[in-house]
Amino acid sequence: MKKFYLLTMLFLFAFFTNAQVTVQGVPRNDIQGGNSSNQLNTTVTTNINFSDIQYWVGSGTNEAAFVVQWNDTKNPDALVWGFRWNGNATGEDMLRAIAQADPRLFALVYPGTQFGSAIGGIGFDLNGQNTNALYKNGNTTYPLYPVGGIVNTTAYDFDDYTAADAADHWGSGWYNSYWSYWVKDPTDADFGYSGVGATSRVLQNGSWDVWNFNAGMNSFPISSTLTPVSAYASFTNFTDGYFMVNEEWFGHTNGSVNFIGNNGQINYRVYSNANNNHAFGATTQYGTIYGDKFYFVSKQAADGGDTQYTPGGRLVVANAQTMQKIAGFNDIGGGDGRSFVGVNENKGYIGASNGVYVFNIANMQVGSAIAGTGGGGQYAGQIGNMIRSSKYVFAVKQSAGILVINPATDALISTIPGAFHSIVQAKDGSIWAIQDQKLVNIHPTTFATTSYNIPTTKYLGSWGAWNAGSFSASSKQNALYWINSVSAWASGTQIVKFDVTTKTFNETFAAIPGQTGTYKQIPYGAGLRVNPITDELILNTTESGYGAHYQKNWIHTFNTSGTLTNTKTLNDYYWFPALAVFPDNTLPAVSSTFPSQVNVNTASTIDLKTLVTDEDNLSSAIVKTVKSNSNPAVVSAVINDNDELVLSPLASGIANVVVSFNSNGKVVEKTLTVNSTASTLATAEVKKIEFSIYPNPVTDILTIKTQEKILNISVYDASGKMVNTQLNNGQINVSALPNGVYILKAVTDKAVYQQKLIKK
Q: Fewer C-beta neighbours within 10 Å, C or N terminus of the chain?
């Protein structure tokens, strides 16, 4: 009897032990009965083989298949990826590698338990909206975003999570639902329920792993229909639309950039997607395209709270066509980042909180500060917006005024005093700066100013938390736009238009939408820019009310009449959009009327302003330079302040003059053959008309004496190469030149002069 009783107890113990379900290796006494069938082998005939898998992650000679089945009636359901590796790999290694590589897949994981990592939830961006985020206990104010495809938790609280996008695949749970884990190795005839979790699961070449969601604790057979996931391809066409540079959520993520296609599609974090989850620095407020490069400027080098994206620094340089990273800089001269402007093909200027710094585009190096641009403190003398005219760079400096920099010498040549907020160049080439309630016209070469009072509204830019501001210019019509202000920290609700030609204001040109209800739409960051191709106004807004309201963001389009024509709604997130930037797709176009050959026997001019245009940039800002002159002893070729090519014959002969047209970093060159038939001035005659240089021979400082206004001065060596053009207060420092004979050429407002110069 005792023997029978003992056998009975052992049988019952074995029965209940076998009936107990394990979930990813964790014994579960709460799952009994019918659900015990989850541990039984199942015969499944799949519709695909390894050769049918389209998206492979990793590299190596071993291959395994990774399947996720949601059972949520959303199609396609059971998706399959491939994983390749060498050496040893686990089921967890495979899941993490695929989640890291494919931005569409994300998982909720509790790592470090006694059974390894527990997989609590798996999701997939089914509708392509890039809204991979989770809400815990319905907290929509602080969404949880995957880091490398993973959201970590510290408890078996998987039932508390929901997907931010209800249209995506998502399943999570532990007590009310759970992910069952099925495996199949090459020697197995059928799939079997895994007795261990993903951490302990050792993959073999030819293994299959299936994650099958048991919603509501119900059992589902492994589907016979598996859908190969198409390989993830980052968006790469950055020509048909525009960019929105994002400040991003301080304390959580570094800066980013979205691309809004003209087809209406919004492509999120295109730089991060193209660069393996790299981002910009903290509080990215500025971006600009110059040549074939995109320059992103952030206030700080990195956001310490961002564990999802790799920070890029205060300045990040990327390929404007592919978004591939070229370089990143934490240190841009010791200050925080503000702005960037291209100067020529090899040089740009960085605007910082402590001055203007030269940036070597050719060598990707941050140079020294431009003398006189610093001082005043980080929040009392910072640099704001900068523009490049055809002759100079104009930079706004807080409290000090507008700094005028000669890009040929990197020298500060003038300061226009005043409390300015921003600066632009109009279609006609005029320079305009804005103050609290005043527009100031700055002559592009003499720097003389004329003020125009804004009738009733104000423009109160914020220097305390600097942004690029809404002050914008059209490249198609002679007009300026901006958003009126309530205070230095709050924008108004009207877009103002100023007609540069008639000098008239329209302070109610267009109204910001979304002004009904408790929470209004408000501009954020720069807020407003003008599309250089369509001439439409692009306005970005967020929702007032602070906190979770800032997850609501819109982009509005207005036509040239001020009519709202389109509105795009961004995915909910704390984007804090900073600035719209437009692609530069076209080269400058030189008119067919530009001559290929001219004959000159006296000083002649060619007006270059009328001969070159650019479809997607400001034509008046195109920089014209004489790149080379094959025979400077025969003809002098210079470009004056009026963008005229001045050709002055010096002797009889032929010279090939190459003129370069640089429009926002894109360069076109034209060659002009000049046939000079007479000399307007012989060297021996120079002193007769009160033009002299001394001492000659010279050791270091050469002084030029003339009563005429010098427009351009150059020094050439014996081979005809220009070696020095820096004239300061009537003097040239030639101390760095090798000893020898040189030719000095000077162009004044009355004549062209040439004289032999001896350096000893």
A: N
